[in-house]
Amino acid sequence: MTVRPLSIFLLGTSLTVGLATGCGDNKKGPGDDGDPDAFTTHSCDDFTGTCTELKAGSDSELQTAVNSLADNSTLVLGSGTFTMTNQLTIRNKGIKLVGQGLDGATATTLDFGGTAAQSNGVDVVGDGFLIADLVVLDAPKDGIRVENTNGVTFHHIRATWTEASKSTNGAYGIYPVHSQNVLVEDSEAHNASDAGLYVGQCQHVIVRNNKVSGNVAGLEIENVQYADVYGNTATDNTGGIVVFDLPGNPIIGRDIRLRDNMIHDNNHINFASGGTVAAIPVGTGTFAMASRRVEITNNTYANNDTGDIAVISGLTLDQDPAHWTQPTAGLIGTYNDLGLDVLAADTVSNFRSKEILISGNHHTGSGTDPDIDNSLKVGLLLSVVYATYFNDAPVDSVLYDAVGETKFMSVDVNGTINTNDNKICAGGNTEGTFASLDLADQPMDGSPFIKFYRPAAPFKPFNCTALTTGAVAEVVLPATQPALP
User: Fold this and answer.
1) Residues 185-213 pLDDT 10s
2) Is 165 contained in some domain?
3) How many whole angstroms separate alpha carbon 439 and alpha carbon 132?
4) pLDDT tens per residue, range 439-468
């Protein structure tokens, strides 16, 4: 631990705390203690306010420092590995936890592989939190969990597990939940048994320029209001980038942009121990389920064996509409303008996918080997139908389950019989193909009962090119969003 101007003694351990005033000119530089390489990327000289530097080693000093944090403090961790024996718990406001990087000799790693308790790695509740330039490895549960926090930034983080494809790996790598004003950027998540990068029940979110691989779900947006997801690469997951609602959550998802992402070769074995993601077919690019006001635009899809994009009703997962009912008294955020099914004066339902725009995406090499072992049997249906009735054609680039449509007809030459009550817009998707299927009446054993509608471009009546309720709202995070200096 770097010696600073003020030393205190806590529990018999000498704890050295760096106090900064002004621009911190009175603080020692990282090389003054004879170890110039420990703080080559960041040091306390970069930050104002109370700051502590810690060299790598066992977690005893780190736990002591974290337990002694005051609000608006910075903890700078040196290069090397911190061998953790317990969860790192932060419950203060305005905390910055900063390492030296992700790779090579300068990397900072929090290794939770020896943690006996079934706990998270880094566990945070506290507004204005920043975590940057470090690796969280082998957490028993979630890698980095941030909950009930307003203003959280993940910058240049890696959350991962050493062994691939293990159902006993932690569920989530990067995991902000029940939070507002969330930024996840330039980060990585690998080998999670549920979702590598998960944002759930949050409002006002930007997820950009991240890499996810080896997970069941690569990048998951669940029950989120107002999110911009762009510049990410999802490869070698079971499912690449997915957006959906689940029943019973107080935030009804809306206004999600999935744009300018690379979503390819997501054919990883599904190793989830259970939960919603256990139903994702191997080879899934993107699906939107029980979602509304979603734009899926200018993404590049390639070599996803089951298919690239699917728009499905929540009833595909949970067939009881009663499970999707929500008393309005408990809902958070704006929902009155979403056209939800109103079951009573104080109750709505959120199983429908509605107002989905699919435009300008690129498609190559997908849909050639649907997952026939998936528990929902959708892959088996697609495999049999496309092989038997569509001359071994690849699964169409965009699939819509047509649940909730007033009329469905397999043969509709002019596109005037089928309805588009849910406003699924694929007319701006100039590459790839489109199909809707009457999934509610389709046998799931692959028997010869074909109810697929496969119109030519521009896919009438799904040929709309804009949402009828206006474009998805832009996400602008506040000027106070936590950031590195």
Assistant:
1) 999 999 999 999 999 999 999 999 999 99
2) no
3) 45
4) 888 776 656 567 999 999 999 999 999 999
Residue 392, CA atoms < 13 Å, CB-side half-sphere: 0
Q: Which of 320, 332, 331, 327 is nearest to 345 (CA)?
A: 327
Domain-located, residue 117: yes
Question: Tens digits of per-residue pLDDT, 378-419?
Answer: 899 999 999 999 999 999 999 999 999 999 999 999 999 999
Structure tokens at 69: 């944090």
For the purposes of burial, counting CB atoms within 10 Å of the CB of 230, is it exposed (0-12), middle (13-18) or buried (19 or more)? middle
* Count of structural domains within the chain: 1
3-state secondary structure the chain: CCCCCEEEEECCEEEEEECCCCCCCCCCCCCCCCCCCCCCCCCHHHCCCEEEEECCCECHHHHHHHHCCCCCEEEEECCEEEECCCCEEECCCCCEEECCCCCHHHCEEEECCCCCCCCCCEEECCCCEEEEEEEEECCCCCCEEEECCEEEEEEEEEEECCCCCCCCCCCEEEEEECCEEEEEECCEEECCCCEEEEEECCEEEEEECCEEECCCEEEEEECCEEEEEECCEEECCCEEEEEECCCCCCECCEEEEEECCEEECCCCCCCCCCCHHHHCCCCEEEEEECCEEEEEECCEEECCCCEEEEEECHHHCCCCHHHHEEEHHHCECCCCCCCCEEEECCEEECCCCEEEEEECCEEECCCCCCCCCCCCCHHHHHHHHHHHCCCCCCCCCEEECCCCCCCCCCCCCCCCCCCCCCCEEEEECCCCCEEEECHHHCCCCCCCCCCEECCCCCCCCCCCCCCCCCCCCCCCCCCCCCCCC
d(CA 368, CA 17): 59
- 76 falls within a domain: yes
Measure the CA dihedral 351/355/361/364, to 10°.
40
127 within 8 A of 149, measured Cβ to Cβ: yes
Residue 18 lies in a domain: yes
Evaluate whether 161 touches 190 at the Cβ level (below 8 Å): yes
Expressed as residue numbers, the domain containing 18 is: 1-126
| Omega within 30 of 0 (cis) for the link into 461 | yes
Entry pTM: 0.92
Q: Distance (Å, rounded) from C-alpha 415 to C-alpha 432?
A: 18
